[in-house]
Amino acid sequence: MSDVLVVIGAGGMGETIARRLAPGRTTLLADYSAELLERLAESMTTDGFDVVTAQVDVSSRASVEALARQADALGAITTVVHTAGVSPTQAPIEAVLKVDLLGVALVLEAFASVVAPGGAGVVISSSSGYLTPPFTSEQAHLIRTSTPEGLLDLPFFAPEALGHAGIAYGLSKQANRIQVQDAAASWGARGARVNSVSPGVISTAMGRLELDSPSGAFMRAMIDNSGTGRIGTPSDIADAVTFLVGPHASFITGTDLLVDGGSVAAVATGRVPLPGR
Questions:
Q1: 220: containing domain
Q2: Would residue 171 count as lying in a domain?
Q3: Is 173 among the catalytic positions?
Q4: Which CATH number fits the domain that encloses residue 170?
Q5: Considering the domain boundaries, does residue 276 fall inside one?
């Protein structure tokens, strides 16, 4: 059987990760945008990669489960990387919750039943989850025990309680870490691992859009005061993902790797105050 790589989200970060991990595998690229899928598939095929595509809506259980079945039919699913997401500048609260919160839960659940023994998954989350107030232990418990669709019914995820797409984004990403912790057991039952990566400010189309948004000044201050003093690149994230899905990370599952150049540390140590404080 073929060794199958699934990359959900064909944007800048997804493309870099796909190209890094694709050699010698059948790569299933999935995205909501048929145009983006066609462009990337054509480019990668021209470069000699074995590529299959699937249009997917990660906020739809039926769509995600169909994707998992398609991947399973291609061969042994050894690597799953979920990069799909929308930012606060791109979408309103409801869409952020459906894609960034519900979408992750549906992907983790669907692929837990088809990932191959020895396989590994990575969810691309965000350092924003480290910059929002932490969930209470009761809220974390509710996230762990909820069905994917039930997450949207939790009162602390109600749009009127959140009030702003940026808050919805940060809390969704914080919840991703809890979801990955919980999924480690179901993935582990199949002999597979799953982790998340929380990028800082990365030079992708989404990242540049956020830099030009009202929160851009805060983001630039984090970069300027970080230990590395630079914006991240998609290759920085691909490096982290390659490690987590590879043999050197065989004892790592259910955890998050913060890949932000030290931006969160700049806030945690007080060098950059959080907005409004």
A1: 2-261
A2: yes
A3: yes
A4: 3.40.50.720
A5: no
The model's pLDDT over 184-227, given as tens digits with 9 standing for 90+, comes to: 999 999 999 999 999 999 987 776 777 777 778 888 999 999 99
* Known catalytic residue at 98: no
Sign of the alpha-carbon torsion through 30, 104, 246, 260:
positive
Q: What is the pLDDT of residue 214?
A: 72
3-state secondary structure labels for all residues of the chain: CEEEEEEECCCHHHHHHHHHHCCCCEEEEEECCHHHHHHHHHHHHHCCCEEEEEECCCCCHHHHHHHHHHHHHHEEEEEEEECCCCCCCCCCHHHHHHHHHHHHHHHHHHHHCCEEEEEEEEEECCHHHHCCCCCCHHHHHHHHHCCCHHHHHCHHHCHHHHCCHHHHHHHHHHHHHHHHHHHHHHHHCCCCEEEEEEECCECCHHHHHHHCCCCHHHHHHHHHCCCCCCCECHHHHHHHHHHHHCHHHCCCCCCEEEECCCHHHHHHCCCCCCCCC
- Is the predicted pLDDT of residue 231 greater than 90, yes or no? yes
> Is the pLDDT assigned to residue 182 strictly greater than 70?
yes
For residue 228, tell me if it sits in a domain: yes
> Which residue from 255, 221, 249 is spatially nearest to 119, judged by alpha carbons?
249
Please give the residue that has the higher pLDDT: either 157 or 11: 157
Model confidence at 2, pLDDT cuts 50, 70, 90, reads: confident
Selecting among 32, 98, 130, 173, the annotated active-site residue is 173
- Domain total in the chain: 1
Q: Does residue 108 fall inside a structural domain? A: yes
- The reply to whether the predicted model has a pTM over 0.90 is yes
The 256-259 sheet, strands edge to edge: 50-55, 26-31, 2-8, 75-82, 115-124, 193-199, 256-259
